[in-house]
Design a protein that fits this description.
By secondary structure, this protein is α/β, with parallel strands linked by helices. It has helices at residues 42-57, 79-86, 90-108, 126-132, 159-165, 168-177, 183-188, 198-212, 217-230, 235-249, 251-261, and strands at residues 7-15, 21-31, 61-68, 114-118, 121-123, 135-139, 143-145, 181-182, 194-196. The chain has a single domain, classed as Alpha-Beta Complex (2-enoyl-CoA Hydratase, Chain A, domain 1). It is 46% helix and 17% strand. A hairpin with a 5-residue loop joins strand 1 and strand 2. It is globular, with a radius of gyration of 20 Å. The termini are far apart.
């Protein structure tokens, strides 16, 4: 049944130090649209938020991993959802942005450890899921791109989470130039903490989970509460939702979206002449 849902929770039992089955368990939230590279849809956003709240209410869950089924973690926004959003005025875009904000805030505010385990494409808003987790591991196939600027948008809703993980100059480069970063690059900038081959990722994750299970869940929760109070407050939600709703409804945002849908080149796309140097001798 769960395999047919856009996202679902998978639970793994735990053993006590004596080898008996414990009441506690770990949860894995699985993005489950592999045929669409786990792209975001309105349905998926709501579903992820519901599942995260289910985890929050379950005191038996010691930690959460976030994964994507198939070859990719998530390719970001679904094409059909983007087309629907492109037809919305400011108020409609604001409502959609708040759905997105609710999902990220629900993940970020969990008081248990959260680990993203990524592979393949991690594009657009999916980079926000990665950043909203406490930390992340990546398969060598992982590649990251803040692709919003290519269609005239900005990574507004996810920006507060990106700011906690990425140095300002690197984030500016990612948000304004939309380069595709490979696994070794996302390790270097701190978006993921370790990378491994497909054959070694399982052992890496198991070792990390076992380490987390050796420490006090109360201490983990208290640490995360203190961290959130010192860094990321809910006041950011309205600011970022307003920013993306405004640019989506703007003339330039609409031009970028329509160019994307029609497979046309946006008016802002330029390039350097081949024989012109950009370095001063």
């Amino acid at each position: 049944m769960s395999q047919s849902l856009a996202a679902y929770l998978h639970y793994t039992p735990l053993l006590s130090s004596s080898g008996r089955e414990a009441e506690d368990r770990i949860a894995t939230l699985v993005l489950n649209r592999p045929d669409a590279a786990n792209a975001f849809s309105g349905e998926l956003l709501v579903r992820i938020t519901e599942l995260l709240e289910e985890v929050r209410a379950d005191s038996s869950v010691r930690l959460l991993t976030l994964q994507g089924s198939g070859k990719h973690f998530s390719a970001g926004a679904d094409l059909m959802w983007m087309k629907e959003s492109a037809q919305l005025k400011y108020d409609g875009n604001l409502a959609e942005a708040k759905k997105l904000s609710a999902m990220f805030e629900s993940l970020s505010s969990l008081r248990i450890p959260t680990i993203a385990i990524v592979k393949g494409a991690v594009f657009g808003g999916a980079v926000g899921l990665l950043a909203a987790c406490d930390y992340a591991f990546a398969e060598e196939s992982a590649k990251v791109c803040l692709s919003e600027a290519k269609i005239g948008l900005i990574p507004a809703v996810i920006l507060p989470y990106l700011q906690r993980k990425i140095a300002p100059a690197t984030l500016h480069r990612m948000a304004m130039g939309s380069p595709i970063l490979l696994s070794d690059q996302i390790l270097k900038i701190g978006l993921v903490q370790e990378i491994a081959s497909a054959s070694k990722l399982e052992a890496l994750v198991r070792t990390e989970i076992n380490a987390l299970l050796q420490t006090s869940p109360e201490a983990q929760s208290a640490y995360k509460k203190l961290w959130s109070e010192l860094t990321l407050g809910e006041q950011n939600v309205d600011v970022t939702a307003n920013a993306i709703a405004t640019i989506r409804a703007s003339a330039m945002g609409q031009h970028g979206l329509q160019s994307f849908f029609k497979k046309e080149t946006p008016s802002w796309v330029l390039q350097l002449p081949e024989k012109v140097s950009v370095l001063i001798p």
